[in-house]
Amino acid sequence: MTRSLKKGPYVDAKLVKKVGARKSSAGAIKTWARASQIAPEFVGYTFAVHTGKSFEDVFVTEDMVGHRLGEFASTTKFIRHGGKMQKEAEMAAKQQEIAAAQTAKAATEAKKS
Hints:
The chain is of the alpha+beta class and 113 residues long. The chain folds into two domains: 13-72, CATH 3.30.860.10; 79-113. The protein is 34% helix and 12% strand. The protein has helices at 13-21, 84-112, and strands at 28-31, 46-50, 55-59. It has a three-stranded mixed β-sheet, covered by helices on one side. The radius of gyration is 24 Å and the shape is elongated.
């Protein structure tokens, strides 16, 4: 649900203060304010956004203005889907890789002799 227009965008006051105090965009600005919207003053700065476990660096560009900081720092990490079909696909890929390595090795040995 969007925020009411009469309220205006939510930009964390501490974050605005930190950006205003910075003279250059060197180094990341640490923040836990994932819900804060990206203001035009933030363009060119790097923010270290907290993901719940660690901080993820987010470099702000013009296209990001109006979005939330949390949108660019994922809190979950995709590993892979499991199951029998996935294991079979991984094994087939591994066999193809081994076969390709063996043919490359045979080709280099043939050139030497």
